[in-house]
Amino acid sequence: MSRLLARAIVLVVGGAVLLAACSNGTPSSNGNKFSGVTVRVVTFTGPQIAEPLQRRAPDFERLTGAKIQIITVPFSDLYQKLLTDFATKTNSYDATVFDPQWMGDYVPSGYLEDLTDRVHNDSALQWNDIAPFFRDFSATFKGKVYTVPLDGDFQMVYYRTDLLQKDGLKPPETWQDYVSIAQHFQGKDLNGDGKADYGSCLAMKRSAQSYWAWISIASAYLQSQGTKQGAFFNLNDMQPLTNNPAAAAALNVYKTLSKIGPPDQLNNDVGDSRGLFVSGRCALSLDWGDIGPLAVDKTQSKVIDKVGAVILPGSKQVLDRSTMQLADCNATLCPYAVNGVNHSPFAAFGGWSGAINHASSSKVKDAAFAFLSYMSQPAQSSSDVTIGKTGFNPYRTSHFTNLGPWETSGMSEAAAKNYLGAIQSSLQSPNMVLDLRIPQTNYYQQTALDTALAQYLAGELSTNATMAQITSQWNKKTDEIGRQSQLDAYKASLSVTK
Amino acid sequence: MRLTRRDRLVLFAPLAVLLGGWLVVPALIGLGATLTTYSPLTTTVTFAGLQNYGNVVHDPQFAEATRNVLIFTFLAVPLELVLGFCLAYLLRRPVWGRSWWRGLLLLPWLVSPIASGVMWHFLFSGATGIVDFAQGWLGRPELASPVGDVRLALPATILIEVWRVTPFATFLLLPGLASIPEERWEQATLAGASWFRRIVDVAIPEVSPLLLTVGMLLTGLSLGTFDTVLILTGGGPGTATLTPALYSYGRAFVTNDWPLGAASAWLIAAGVAAVGAVYIRLSSRRSH
To answer: At CB < 8 Å, which residues of chain B contact A?
Structure first.
């Protein structure tokens, strides 16, 4: 009898465990849970971002029986492909790993699935382990969750620890410091190959990812009153903050830096500047988190354990919104200043995130969510964020507290703490600058801003003409779409609960 | 055998279906869109008349792009024709390793424009480029990539396109030159004509209709220059290498202003059609 009872208990407990596992939308639940279900996931060509998806898809397929098709398109085509696919109801993609900035266009049209309940009901996803910024801003639109974060994006400054230490220099605190350090090292041999190297390496190519660097510089001058102040538009009338002494100061820094670097810097994209930095040819660079893992990649780095990272440099003068003039920082004007320097770390891009097509069938949506959840879970993401070629940067609390995977990747404990510390100081800043996320963000940034900056660097436009051109084009687009609706969207994008 | 009208219709039908379904109909829909405010992001579509064309024509970026493509065409096409003709002239007779030379020369044309853009970007690059490597090997200071220099970007882009397209011109001209009867060359040689006079008096008259056709084809290709520039420079530095096709792509696919993108594309098509009209006029005058 007791044996029968024991068997019954085992059966009941086993059944309960199995049931619990089945109700949990994670791949560990059942090897055939999604048997016969095909999920078509579109992302950009990469190899970054696509690589971890392609590498982990077979494991997920074995665990769940689902078939994952990773479709890649060039980054420049991704937004349009998705939009066309959604708008024409072709629905050839069930899920996407994309730029969360595009939610401003996709969510109001009803193209993306609301994931709020799913993320909260999926214990394996460990939603609360994801840093608040990525949960509350990057993944959320008007209070609802639409994406699963797979990447954490902040721009930071990287510097050569060996060079600065040798010359008794401190990492840059302000943009003036950055320029001075760059000038100090420009033309010197920084990697022992007998060739003159560069003080700073930045991406400045047209039609690429360069304009984010200018925003990173401008943020320090434009926003000082906290995240909700915003760095792009005036919150009263949606007037662009691109034609004032603060924007002019940022343009001047940008132009100066275009001359303190590689001679062909105007044609360099981020891949080029990263390559130059990890080959030891630059003293400074400005980039997302990618340089950290790349710098310890033994196959390409010549600066292993010689790289430090700091929060974006700031400014001792900021834009006083009441006078629209530059003014010295004080307790009122720069409440978050450190040593009199206003830092405004810029969450450029927001981090690659996974979203699901609202029009897909419910079974496919379940499988798509399970795949995105699987990619984000700490078991997978903790090692993915330490690999340079994935393009994924840390975004979970556990990514910052668990140093094991970083040390396994080749980073020393000190280097890992330094790198993660720079990201954390950005993440924890109350004055973080959020990237633009309003309808037709692409026009404001990739067309109007990018073109004017390219013309400015090429000498086709003066500082004043550049500011006037950006402002006029932004205003024209705002009026075309509707000033009030754009203002509402902009305000909504800044309402982040931290 | 003489083909009847019905035979011709049957033979042309597959091509007509293909062109109609995948070229003419979409192009006409695009033409219709240029007269509206259509966009995948707007919920209402209104008639805009010729406003989109007006916006394109008055856009300083489009003016810069047009200037660039005209310079591009006026320099690239004659260079491609002259070099293509010279190479075809050299290859018209059996020479040692002719097949090998032909295959080698065809390689640049076989490389896709995108791959060509990527390749030249890295060849010119200061950190990894072969040009810089050669400079360093010769003990000379580093050279900036010409495509990163405002003054050199367009000439460099033109040279890259000449490198890519010249083999195509060569292989179009080669059959024409190879078909000139040997006696014509011998007569000219016996008459004491120099190699230059042989080219002017024998070769050019024989292949001039072909030269006109190839010239017009290359002009059409140049006016639509897009892929190499997109990858190589993105239209920069500044607007130094922006072309109308790149402008059209940017408007249509980066900023989703489809009517503006389509309007600029139709203006390019009008330019190419004008070149075609000149060709037809010149050909018919020649045949008369």
So the answer is: 40-41, 61, 121, 124-128, 136, 141-145, 147-150, 153, 230, 233-240, 250-251, 253-257
Q: Which pLDDT belongs to residue A492?
A: 84
A156-348+425-494 under CATH 3.40.50.720, yes or no: no
Cβ contact B254–A206 (<8 Å): no
Give, in words, the CATH class of A30-153+350-422: alpha beta
pLDDT (tens digit per residue) in B143-189: 778 898 999 999 999 999 999 999 999 999 999 999 999 899 889 98
B59-287 fold: MetI-like fold (1.10.3720)
pTM greater than 0.95: no
Measured distance CA(A218)–CA(A204) in Å, rounded? 15
Could you give the CA distance from residue B38 to residue B48 in angstroms, rounded to a whole number?
9
Do the Cβ atoms of A262 and B126 come within 8 Å?
yes
The predicted structure's pLDDT at residue A408: 92
Nearest CA to CA, how far is A131 from chain B (Å)? 31
* Total number of residues shown for chain A: 498
Which residues of chain A carry a pLDDT beneath 50?
1-2, 4-5, 10-25, 28-29, 496-498
DSSP per-residue codes, A307-344: EEEEPPPBBSEEEETTTTEEEE--TTT-TT-BTTBB--
Confidence at residue B1, expressed as pLDDT on a 0 to 100 scale: 67
Find the helix or strand (DSSP H, E) in which A95 lies: strand A95-98
* Cis-peptide, bond into residue B237, ω within 30° of zero: yes
Please choose, from the candidates A341, A351, A344, A358, the residue with its C-alpha nearest in 3D space to the C-alpha of residue A312: A344
Cis peptide before A405 (omega within 30 of 0): no
Joined together, the tokens standing for residue A396 give 């979970």
Please tell me the distance from the alpha carbon of residue A433 to that of residue A483, in angstroms, as a whole number: 22
- How far apart CA A53 and CA A60 sit, in angstroms, is 10
Compare all CA atoms of chain B with the CA of A84 and give the residue at the minimum distance. Answer: B40
- CB-CB neighbors (< 8 A) of A451 in chain B: 61, 239
Contact A469, A444 (CB under 8 A): no
What is the rounded end-to-end Cα distance, in angstroms, of chain B? Answer: 27
- Please state the domain extents for chain B: 59-287
Predicted pLDDT of residue B137: 75
What does the pLDDT read at residue A339? 93
The DSSP code sequence of A142-199 is TTEE--EE------EEEEEHHHHHHTT-PPPSBHHHHHHHHHHHTTS-SSSSSS--EE
Mean pLDDT of chain B: 89
Is pLDDT larger for residue A320 or for residue B43?
A320
Taking contacts as CB-CB distances below 8 angstroms, the residues of chain B near A440 are 41, 255-256
d(CA B268, CA B66): 9
pLDDT at B128: 65
At residue A163, the pLDDT reads 98
Q: What is the gyration radius of the CA atoms in chain A, in angstroms?
A: 24
**Dihedral class, residue B97 (left if φ above 0, else alpha if ψ from -120 to 50, else beta):** left
* Termini Cα distance of chain A: 58
| Interface predicted TM-score of the whole assembly (ipTM), two decimals | 0.83
Residue type, A64: T
DSSP annotation string for A253-296: HHHHHHHSS-TTGGG--HHHHHHHHHTT-EEEEEESTTHHHHHT
Contact A361, A99 (CB under 8 A): no
Q: How far apart are CA A245 and CA A222, in angstroms?
A: 10
